[in-house]
Amino acid sequence: MLVPSLQKLLAALRRLPGVGPKSAQRIGYHLLRATREEATELARAVVALKDRVGLCSVCGNVAERAEGVSDKTPLECPVCADPRRDSSRLLIVEEPYNVEAFQKTGVYDGLYHVLGGLFDPLAGVGAVELGLDALARRVSGGSFREVILATSPTTAGEATASYIHELLKPLGVTLTRIAVGLAPGADVDYADEISLRLALEGRREYGSIGR
Asked: What is this protein's function (predicted)?
């Protein structure tokens, strides 16, 4: 029989993505054996994350609020704040961690737009939930010449990319799709840097892939 505090911790850990009962148990007992200083450091890091980190008001990437800045001030991520970035290219990805993955390839220096997910009709996730109207406004009001669709080549990823293509096509920008390097059905989340670099370098205009 678990003591209440440990039981509560394990239940909280199991709510984390990818953490099942066994993993939660290992983490929980590791924390139990850790020093108070180690446990406190972890707790403070989690609280600081919630207090200071959020999503960029421009692109949806992860952004951090500097100390002393009002929590009412819109957040801006390091990519959007960097004047050296190529503002003529926009890479559309699913999640903030995809930004970091593409950054590691070293071949892309443009801007990003993070959707925060993919179409999922069963979960009620569609164009409104992904903020696609805001994406269209950003593209129409910017100086973008190319928009790169970098969603995973899964059923949901392709459906989302197709919708975005139809949404942005009237705006006159070149729409491309990441190509070689990712097999059909693969997930961008699990692709290595070389695969992502090949997928990005081998991109083709949307609709021409497979011809």
From this structure: May play a role in DNA repair. It seems to be involved in an RecBC-independent recombinational process of DNA repair. It may act with RecF and RecO.
> Alpha-carbon distance 121 to 123, whole Å?
5
User: If you search the block for the tokens 């020093």, which residue do you land on?
Assistant: 35
> Residue 75: helix, strand or coil by DSSP?
coil
The per-residue pLDDT for range 17-69, each reduced to its tens digit, is: 999 999 999 999 999 999 999 999 999 999 999 999 999 999 999 999 987 77
Place of tokens 């090949």: 198
Domains of the chain: 4-51 (1.10.8.420), 83-205 (3.40.1360.10)
Digit-coded pLDDT (tens) for 72-129:
889 999 999 999 999 999 999 999 999 999 999 999 999 999 999 999 999 999 999 9
